[in-house]
Fold each of these.
Amino acid sequence: MISIKNLHKSYRMGDSSLHVLKGIDLDIKEGELLAIMGSSGSGKSTLLNILGMLDSLDEGEYLLDNVLIDGLTETTAATYRNKFLGFIFQSFNLINYKNALENVALPLYYQGLGRKIRQVKALEYLEKVGLKDWATHLPSELSGGQKQRVAIARAMASQPKVLLADEPTGALDSKTSNEVMGLIQQINNEGKTILVVTHELDIANMCKRIVTLKDGVIVEDQKVEQVIAEKYV
Ligand code: ADP
Ligand code: MG
């Protein structure tokens, strides 16, 4: 599903440059639930952003679903991003003046679906994350865990091949983190490929494989005995 070879990335800092990713090789198969672990500043988000086509690579090769992701025009990149990838962020990134249903329906609008079908599908995904009864509530009326579940429903709505989550539990308490990871495990069990960036071992252990980054290189890549999170419903 994902294959990267000898990936390098630097950021320019005035006259100098910061070498953040220093030759990453990584293969991810369909159906994996993979944690990218490492301390703050180790390059996790940079790697995820490149995999998510939100940032470009300097050197190396990136294949997503057998498509070479490099030198694509912004329009083509956007098309692949919408078709292949769903994003989940630490801070949820919901639109504050839209209710839960409208937030989930938004990517369907960009896919060109009609109003009625958008509503039906969005409600279906809200039901999947246990929030059907919260459809008309604004983000400000939802708890952190509920907001993240709406964001997960939104990411799922466009039926991406891969879900990319950057510290999805970073703003949540441990009980709520567990519930959100339980949902992520459930979605993975249904076959979705999911990458979770985290700096917490507890969260990484709820995945099936842990890739550890340190100073821009992979220092460990291990299969783990997955810890099953509590169910939230
Ligand atoms: P992590 O997610 O593991 O905490 P990041 O990938 O966000 O790490 O950052 C890795 C390093 O790259 C850090 O030193 C960070 O300051 C730097 N960095 C990240 N993004 C940028 C950017 N857009 N411009 C300059 N430096 C950046
Ligand atoms: Mg980060």
Amino acid sequence: MSSMLTRRAVAGVLAAVAFAAPAAAQQYPARPITVIVPFAAGGPTDVLARLVTQRMGAILGQTMVVENVGGAGGTIGVTRGARAAPDGYVLTVGHLGTHVSNIALYRQLQYNPQTDFEPIAPLGVNPMILVAKRGAPAAVPAFLAHVRQNQARLSYGHAGIGSASHTAALMFHSMTQTKVQDVAYRGTGPALNDLVAGQFDYMIDQALNLLEQIQAGNVVAVGVTTPQRLPQLPNLPTLAESGLTGFDVAIWNTLFAPKGTPPAILERLNQVANQALAEPALRTRLTELAVQIPSSDELRLGAFRDKHAADIARWVPVIREAGATAE
Ligand code: ASP
């Protein structure tokens, strides 16, 4: 009799354990999800994150709330994201800056971009454009001559040490062997406002932040950072074709969860990202913004790990060689 009871009790416990994990995942998300954007509102990471997570939230039936936690090249926001409870309610958007360059440039980085995070899905790759304040020479050779001749007087903007805009500028200054004073912002959203106002001379930033201001004539577009020109600006030459041979920087942006997030939640979020990125309206908008949408192969859960590792191997030595370090 008592052994019957024990057996039943054990079976009950086993059943409860077996059902516990799927039940938690099935209820997920039971409340809004915070998405940490480690740069200022209105910048490229913010805009891309909002476009995609708004659709993801609609599919999930819960709001995904973007929280902008800018500063120190994204390290403040990403550190917070790494330390969040791994329950699927605090996610982080990282990019080539926060999750690669920062390894090279910060001696005291408080997070490990690979081991502290689980990639959920890449959100898109965006080429960059070198833009300058109105009145600057637009042709690449003339612009390069301008920078070489006036480097002691010019200044360039970026979103903090290790940010995408800083990384691209490091490459630019190392290839042109120039040294120019920098101005750091919490994101290239506010930096672009200052460039339009003529507060500094140039910046290299993701195309999605710049197209409107270029088209409005508020900044001068000098060149594209990828080997291919942009379909949106077919007359704008690449830096590579204009003398900076081999210049090739494009910025991936990826949604991450903290390490230890239950697999069922990662799978759900990955599936929803796939669904959102398959929607024609979102695809059209992203394409207008020169965002290259990841393929379904790249969007497989976990597929991003290899790309991440390859980029760390490719970029960290180059950036260390080119850059100054931060604490
Ligand atoms: N992605 C940053 C932003 O959204 C800028 C950067 O990394 O350069 O402001």
